[in-house]
């Protein structure tokens, strides 16, 4: 049997009186791809931060290449060949792509200055490995989409030829095509002897691409088994202690009247004349490859992004484009992609994160009625099953799934007619995902129109009544429920002529 890159025994971690990990044993060998799964709060990130050197265990041992190690920081872990690509990006948006890839180890010329020519050439080589051949190394990273930035983060990690690569939800911002390229690269690295740990909530990916699957629950290792012997239903049962299904459930009667009408909506760079109609109580899924325009569409509709042309009406009333405040007053509300960067208010409590959208309703003469605010937050927290000690906690003390539900509570407080969701289950576990699907279904049943952009095909199929497929800044297919399948949706995403509608589709607008 091949000697282990890393062997951990009895790893325990406590923060004060709270035990996060309870005696974890795990071995990683060269060329293995290990899927690490579990609900938010199961201890996955804590364990990986110990392996990477960011945290020290309370008890237990880590042995690298047969030698016991007491890691004294991330730098020590990196010196041993450990690289950790986090779900939350740590890139510098104001620097170029090449500068991000080689941050901290710039290539110098003989005079001691940064060798830009060599830096860009090396960046092109590593960008090609992650499928970003078309990206110019000199472009500012902040101008790229989140999925592209995620791949640049991966490029940075593999540029240093790691011995152990930890990937935390690496496909969460990627579409299936980009995801397949990532897994192709993972298998290439494994073939050369790199060990990989793949943290994911997407069980299909773990089953398809991992050699072993490790399940954590409540800080304990529940099972470590070969992927070929595992099933999705078994893994869910190990993770949450109960079976969970994501089958489509009709949520009620869709209204006959049209709630939202969009005509010829375009921006300066991505959108090329979007037309659509949506009715009250309808959940419309938006799918497309990275850069297809689905996020840009939601942001332009809401007013985050400037529109070049187009018109929008909500319940027959015209909406002034580019004005978020008026969009909210007309009944639109958006939960953007990126919970930590564009969603939560990290320095505030759970209560204030929920109530911020409705403070005017709790205020009089400039003073907030704390009792009314607290009552509204308690009602919404109970309705959405937000698990917390109390609403005075910092929002950052909650798990990712509960943070996301708090954002849904914020949206409910605004009583939206049209709810815009961009990757609403990004980075949450299967249990929280099922609860969020139920929230969306209840909103639709109450008459809310929901537009939901997602890069997960199973999510679109589980929630949406209709699917708009974006390609090249246009709607390539408008599929009704009967016409929706993974094959038909992907066919639209790869449509050679984006304006062409697929046969059998239900065309709206």
Describe this structure in words.
- It is a single chain.
- The chain has 509 residues and is α/β, with parallel strands linked by helices.
- It folds into 2 domains: 6-240, 3-Layer(aba) Sandwich (Rossmann fold); 258-493, P-loop containing nucleotide triphosphate hydrolases (Rossmann fold).
- 32% of the residues lie in helices and 24% in strands.
- It contains 17 helices and 22 strands.
- The strands form 5 sheets. Strands 6-7-8-3-9-10 form a 6-stranded mixed beta sheet, sandwiched between helices.
- It is globular, with a radius of gyration of 24 Å.
- The relative contact order is 0.11.
Describe, in short, the structure shown.
By secondary structure, this protein is an alpha/beta fold. It has 17 helices and 22 strands. It has helices spanning 44-52, 74-79, 97-101, 116-129, 146-158, 176-191, 203-209, 232-240, 294-302, 324-329, 339-343, 350-355, 370-383, 400-413, 430-445, 457-463, 486-493, and strands at 6-15, 18-28, 33-37, 59-64, 67-69, 82-85, 164-168, 195-199, 212-217, 220-226, 258-266, 272-279, 283-288, 309-314, 317-318, 332-335, 363-364, 367-368, 418-422, 449-453, 466-471, 474-480.
